[in-house]
Amino acid sequence: MRDLATLPKAHLHLHFTGSMRLETLIELASSARTRLPSNFLDGDPLRVPADRRGWFRFQRAYDTARALVRTEEVMRRIVLEAALDDAAEGSRRLEIQVDPTSYAPFVGGITPALEIILDAAKQATTLSGVEVAVIVAASRMRHPLDARTLARLAVRYAGDQPGEVIGFGLSNDERAGQTSSWERAFAIARRGGLASMPHGGELLGPDHLREVVSALSPTRLGHGVRAGEDPTLLDAIVASGISLEVCPASNVSLGVYHSPDDVPLRTLMSHGAQIALSADDPLLFQSRLVDQYEIARALGCDDAELAELARGSIRACLASPTAKRAWLAEVDAWLAAPDQVPGAQSDGPEASDLEA
C-alpha cells in the first residue's frame, strides 16, 4: 500500500479555530489560566461512548478554544500551523473557513479580523508551499442580517488566488433557524463572484438537505453525507455538479454514525459523487486530513480508489486550472509509483479498531 501522506490532495473543509494544534491550545490555555474541558485530553474521540458524543459537547469545547484566540499573533500562528500540517500530509491546496465576527472584538472589527486572516494565508502559502485560500462563513447562531453584512465584506476581498476569499459558507448547528433566511446573504455572495459552500447533511437528513440545495444553490456541500440515505436526492446532487466535503471522523465523533464502518462513503462513491475528504476540526476530533484517507482505506478502498478521492478533492477546489492540472498529474504519478513490498503492514487504523 502506498503512503497516503504523499498522495497529492486538497483540503476543503477545515474550520479556523478547529484547525489549531492541541499543543498550541494547551499553551494558550496555560497563558490565560483557563482550564480546558476534559474531552480535549481524554483520548481518541472515536472511542468516546455513544452517550457522551453529540453536538453540544463539541460546541462547548469549540467555544472554549475560540475564546483563547485573542490576538493577531495567535490568528496568524493558527493559519500557518494549519498550512504546515497540511503540507506534511500531501495537501496542495487548503481552503480554510472562518467567521471573522468571533475575533473582531480583539483586533478592531470584522474587517481587520478578515484582513489578518487573508494576509496570514498569503504568508502561509509562501512558507508552507500549500496554497491557502479563505471561505468566509456565517453562523446559524447569529441573525441572518449579520450574514448579509459578512457576505458584503467577503465580496470586497473576492478572488481566486491564495490569500483571497473564494467562497461564502454557513456553519454551526444545522438545526438552528430556517435555511431560507440566509438565501439573501448567499445571493449577495454569488453576485460578487463567490462560490456557495453551506453546511448541510450531517446532523439533519435528506429533507433538510433538500432545503439547503434549493435555497442556497451550493457549489459544494459541507458534509452532505446524509444524502446517502436518499438515492434520488444523491443522484440529483451528483447530476447538479455539487461536490461533497465528507468528514468521516467528524461524523463519528458527533454521533451521526456509530463507527467509521457506518459512514456511507462507499454509497456516495458508487453514485459518482465528487468527494473531498476533509478533517473538519482536527483539534476536537484528533483526526487530521490523512486520517480520513486511512479511514477510507480501512473501509476497503484500494489505492486506485484513494487516488480518485484525491482527484475529486482537487477538482472540487477553486484553484487555477493550471494548478489543478499539475496536481492531478502528481496524483497519477503517485499511483504509477511502485507499491510497497507485498504483505507490508499499513500504519493506518483498521475499521474495526476505530469503533466506539
Q: What's the helix count?
A: 15
Major sheet description: 8 strands, parallel
H/E element order = EHHHEHHEHEHEHEHEHHEHHHH
Q: How much β-strand is present in the residues?
A: 5-15%
Quick one: CATH superfamily? Answer: Metal-dependent hydrolases
- How would you describe the shape? globular
Q: Count every beta strand, where a strand is a DSSP E run of 2 or more residues.
A: 8
CATH fold field value: TIM Barrel
Structural class: alpha/beta
Strand adjacency order, main sheet: 1-2-3-4-5-6-7-8
Residue runs with pLDDT of under 50 for 5 or more positions: 345-356
Tell me the Rg in angstroms.
19 Å
In short:
The chain contains 15 helices and eight strands. The chain is α/β, with parallel strands linked by helices. Helix 7 links the parallel strand 4 and strand 5.
